[in-house]
């Protein structure tokens, strides 16, 4: 991807979007779609903050130039041309980061890369708001991830051992107020964790994270955005297909004719659409199991009115 023209110095008024812009820069090569939407979020937020001051107008103008250049480069990408695909891409990417950091946390492996993954996940959930209001699940994920990043960072800074796994979040604890602490002293590019930090999606715990609901289709693909390295071995030029366990399909779903007395609500259609969205995004990561599970859930909902 062609390099983007640099931005002028960030006006003080835009301090709240500096980490989103940094995240965009970090993803220019790794995931241009994520980089595009991070800049779009920064643009929309900046316009609301100050679009009249000369330095702010100049900055936003240059940021708009970057957005137009990215959109031109990514013009044939469905995640840019179709909002539902773009939203699913961002949600899955943010959740993949969240799950990597959460697994490291639960295993008691505290390091800067894990802290950065928690914090970046929270920033990407901010970015999802370019598509509309966040779901309750995303709001809880964002609060927990940002709080965890701040908590673990402060513990390590003070020479204390963080408590692994979910611990109660005080409802009156203003996580947003401390967001800089979660990003302080973090590498501008993620460091490579040790081999003991390799993420295995098969070990993903089910259930809640202090009330955080993991949405359907949330199984993380094998490679996380934190770039956890594969185990080293003999180099091979042949790409081996990944063996996957396909879930059993309910035979009743082969009869796709819905019963005449089924009355689907707008909420039912929205949930079915979300299952299909997660399935499509899972296929982008070649996660067949998650795709099949979510398509089954959508089909069951649409044909029976029940999940």
UniProtKB/TrEMBL annotation:
<feature type="domain" description="Vta1 C-terminal">
    <location>
        <begin position="266"/>
        <end position="303"/>
    </location>
</feature>
<dbReference type="GO" id="GO:0005829">
    <property type="term" value="C:cytosol"/>
</dbReference>
<dbReference type="Pfam" id="PF18097">
    <property type="entry name" value="Vta1_C"/>
</dbReference>
<dbReference type="InterPro" id="IPR023175">
    <property type="entry name" value="Vta1/CALS_N_sf"/>
</dbReference>
<feature type="domain" description="Vta1/callose synthase N-terminal">
    <location>
        <begin position="16"/>
        <end position="158"/>
    </location>
</feature>
<dbReference type="GO" id="GO:0005771">
    <property type="term" value="C:multivesicular body"/>
</dbReference>
<dbReference type="InterPro" id="IPR041212">
    <property type="entry name" value="Vta1_C"/>
</dbReference>
<keyword id="KW-0007">Acetylation</keyword>
<comment type="similarity">
    <text>Belongs to the VTA1 family.</text>
</comment>
<feature type="region of interest" description="Disordered">
    <location>
        <begin position="160"/>
        <end position="233"/>
    </location>
</feature>
<keyword id="KW-0967">Endosome</keyword>
<dbReference type="Pfam" id="PF04652">
    <property type="entry name" value="Vta1"/>
</dbReference>
<comment type="subunit">
    <text>Interacts with VPS4B. Interacts with CHMP1B. Interacts with CHMP2A; the interaction probably involves the open conformation of (polymerized) CHMP2A. Interacts with CHMP3. Interacts with CHMP5; the interaction involves soluble CHMP5. Interacts with IST1.</text>
</comment>
<protein>
    <recommendedName>
        <fullName>Vacuolar protein sorting-associated protein VTA1 homolog</fullName>
    </recommendedName>
</protein>
<dbReference type="GO" id="GO:0015031">
    <property type="term" value="P:protein transport"/>
</dbReference>
<keyword id="KW-0472">Membrane</keyword>
<feature type="compositionally biased region" description="Acidic residues">
    <location>
        <begin position="169"/>
        <end position="180"/>
    </location>
</feature>
<keyword id="KW-0813">Transport</keyword>
<keyword id="KW-0963">Cytoplasm</keyword>
<dbReference type="GO" id="GO:0005654">
    <property type="term" value="C:nucleoplasm"/>
</dbReference>
<dbReference type="InterPro" id="IPR044538">
    <property type="entry name" value="Vta1-like"/>
</dbReference>
<dbReference type="InterPro" id="IPR039431">
    <property type="entry name" value="Vta1/CALS_N"/>
</dbReference>
<feature type="compositionally biased region" description="Low complexity">
    <location>
        <begin position="185"/>
        <end position="206"/>
    </location>
</feature>
<keyword id="KW-0653">Protein transport</keyword>
<dbReference type="GO" id="GO:0010008">
    <property type="term" value="C:endosome membrane"/>
</dbReference>
<dbReference type="GO" id="GO:0032511">
    <property type="term" value="P:late endosome to vacuole transport via multivesicular body sorting pathway"/>
</dbReference>
């Amino acid at each position: 991807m062609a390099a983007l023209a640099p931005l002028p110095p960030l006006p003080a008024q835009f301090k709240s979007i500096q980490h989103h812009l940094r995240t965009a820069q970090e993803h220019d090569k790794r995931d241009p779609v994520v980089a595009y939407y991070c800049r779009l979020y920064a643009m929309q937020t900046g316009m609301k903050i100050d679009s009249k001051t000369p330095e702010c107008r100049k900055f936003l103008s240059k940021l708009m130039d970057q957005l137009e250049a990215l959109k031109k480069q990514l013009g044939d990408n469905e995640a840019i041309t179709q909002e539902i695909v773009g939203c699913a891409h961002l949600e899955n990417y943010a959740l993949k980061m969240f799950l990597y950091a959460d697994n490291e946390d639960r295993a008691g492996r505290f390091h800067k890369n894990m802290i950065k993954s928690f914090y970046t996940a929270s920033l990407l959930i901010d970015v999802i708001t370019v598509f509309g209001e966040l779901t309750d699940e995303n709001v809880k994920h964002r609060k927990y991830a940002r709080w965890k990043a701040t908590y673990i960072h402060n513990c390590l800074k003070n020479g204390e051992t963080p408590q692994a796994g979910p611990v109660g979040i005080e409802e009156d604890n203003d996580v947003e107020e401390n967001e800089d602490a979660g990003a302080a002293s973090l590498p501008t590019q993620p460091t490579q964790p040790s081999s003991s930090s390799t993420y295995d999606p098969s070990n993903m715990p089910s259930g809640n994270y202090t009330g955080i609901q993991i949405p359907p289709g949330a199984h993380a693909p094998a490679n996380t955005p934190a770039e956890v390295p594969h185990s080293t071995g003999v180099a091979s030029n042949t790409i081996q297909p990944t063996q996957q366990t396909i879930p059993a399909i309910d035979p009743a779903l082969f009869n796709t004719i819905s019963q005449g007395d089924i009355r689907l609500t707008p909420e039912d259609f929205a949930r079915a659409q979300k299952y299909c969205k997660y399935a499509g995004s899972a296929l982008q990561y070649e996660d067949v199991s998650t795709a099949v599970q979510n398509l089954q859930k959508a089909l069951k909902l649409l044909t029976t009115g029940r999940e």
